[in-house]
Amino acid sequence: MTVVTCTDADGADRGMTVSAFSSVSLTPPLILICVDKSASVHDALIAAPTFVVNVLSAEQEAVARRFAETGAQRFTGIGFTRGQHGAPLLDDALATLECRQVAHHASGDHTIVIGETDVATMSDAKPLLYYRGGFALLER
Fold this sequence. Notes:
Layout: E1 2-7, E2 13-18, E3 21-25, E4 30-36, H1 42-47, E5 50-55, H2 61-68, E6 80-82, E7 88-90, E8 95-107, E9 110-122, E10 128-131, E11 134-137
Antiparallel strand pairs: 1-2, 1-5, 3-4, 4-9, 5-8, 6-7, 8-9, 10-11
């Protein structure tokens, strides 16, 4: 499960839970996310030159739920730092991918956003998974 964050044209932090995230290419390092066109963050994300994919750890189910809520003050009480391009990097994420937007494509009721990863970090935590309509943990 991921939370995608960016800073909008007015300098406000924006973010949303995104379950459709995938690697596209290793060279160059490209990823994609799919964003519902009706999502409140859609237009800000499409206009943002950079964004961050925060891959959530198993302990961050509450963060995933917060950023999925409509109308929520999503960043209130959520710890974060600023990435290389100024977008929020969520504290305790399993991994963060700081990306430059290189393309976006309308596809049905979603927009596919492709980003080139500039900076990536990771930890040894377990991932938060979303499976069959609910959250799950990966057991080793």
